[in-house]
Amino acid sequence: MKKLTKIPVLWLCCTLFFLPFLVAGPSSAQCNMVSAQIDAAAASCDTGDLDCFVSLAKNNVSCAANFAWYYMIVYAPDDPTVVQDRFLAALPYSFSLSKDLGTAIDLAYRANRGEQQAGSKTSANEYPSGQGSRSADEQPYGQ
C-alpha cells in the first residue's frame, strides 16, 4: 500500500519540477524588447533585407513575431508565405511560436491590403469622399 501512495507523490513532485521549464521555454516567453529597441534593431538592417530580420529573430526568439510583423508592415511583400517560411525555417519549432508568427504576418498582410485597397479608391491627395468640383474662388458650403 505504501508504494501506491509514493507513486502519485513522486509524479506530482516531478511534474512541479519540470513545469516551469516547459512554461518558460522560448516559444511562450514574452518579448523582452520595447518598441524603441525593436525599431533600432530593425534600422540596422538594409532596406528590405529579409535575412537580416530573420537573423534578428534568431537572436531574440521571444520577439520573432514582432520582427516578422515589422518586416511585413514596412516592406509589404506580395507573398506572406515566403516571409513566414523563412522565419519558421530559421527558428526552433514550437506550436505557439509558429502560431504567433502566422498571426503576426497575417495581421500585417491584411493591414497592408486594406491600405492598398483604400488607396486604390482615391489618389494620394484626394479625400476618400472627393473634393467636389468647385472653382478656387468659390466658398465652401455655399458661403
What this model shows, in words?
The protein has a domain at 30-122. Helices cover 63% and strands 0% of the residues. The protein has six helices and no strands. The longest helix has 26 residues, at 95-120. The chain is globular. The chain starts with a helix and ends in a 23-residue tail after the last helix.
**Poorly predicted tracts of residues:** 10-27, 127-143
Distance between the termini: 96 Å
Secondary structure: helix percent: 55-70%
Overall radius of gyration: 25 Å
Inertia-based shape: globular
Summarize the structure.
This protein is mainly α. The protein is built from six helices and no strands.
List keywords for this structure.
63% helix; mainly alpha; disordered C terminus; 143 residues
